Amino acid sequence: MIKHIVFDVDRTLVDSFEPELLSLQEAIEIVTQQKLEREDLSKLTTLPTSEFFKRLNLSDLEIKQINKEWEITFSKYKTVCFKNIKELIKELNNRGYIIDIITSRTLEEYHELDNELSDISNIINTVITSDIIKNPKPNSESMDLLCSRTNCSKDEIIYVGDSKIDKDFSISSGCLFIPACWENKDLMNEENACFDPIDILKRL
Fold it and tell me: How do residues 43-66 score in pLDDT, each as one tens digit?
């Protein structure tokens, strides 16, 4: 019996892709004088921030400078919840499901969304961020930690995410998966793909 609905954050709960992509592209160009192609950036932005920078082969100093500039450039763009997300979360709560989050964001990055998530934050039970684990998605460590903290089993969980990494994460974790395709269409041909958050209610 499913008891927990666990959500990814970026491109699943919040429409962060464009703000993140444009502001990061701008910050990297300011520091390195190189403008990375949108396609290359979009492939990497599903990774935890530390892994993202590692794959770009940037020095520690460059990473520090980019992060500083990124705070400035990101403030130009607003990250908001997708339409019907808050309604979905509230309805799931009304139906007795426990709402959790597993995200590639660090805790500090997650708290950047406090204002946007303020009216549903009291519904969210447990949040697992990438800075409290050693092995990020698709490794199952963060799901193992969630199960430990909530005293639930993986057959009681559905994970909702938008990317192949999220799908692989669900497989490695041994839990059910719902593809969130209302913004990222990479998984649109997958079984149970949802194109509006409210569609999730039909999959339960």
Answer: 666 677 777 788 888 889 999 999
Alpha-carbon dihedral 139, 124, 1, 105, rounded to 10 degrees: -10
Tokens 């913004």 locate to 183
Q: Under 8 Å CB-to-CB from 147, ≥6 apart: which residues?
A: 153, 154, 157
3-state secondary structure of 194: strand
Regarding the domain delimited by 4-15+79-203, which CATH topology (the fold level of the hierarchy) does it fall under?
A: Rossmann fold (3.40.50)
* Longest Cα separation, the chain: 53
Tens-place pLDDT, residues 140-149: 999 999 999 9
The first and second tokens of residue 47, run together, are 């990774």
pTM of the model: 0.81
CB of 15 within 8 A of CB of 81?
A: yes
Q: Where are the domains of the chain?
A: 4-15+79-203, 17-74
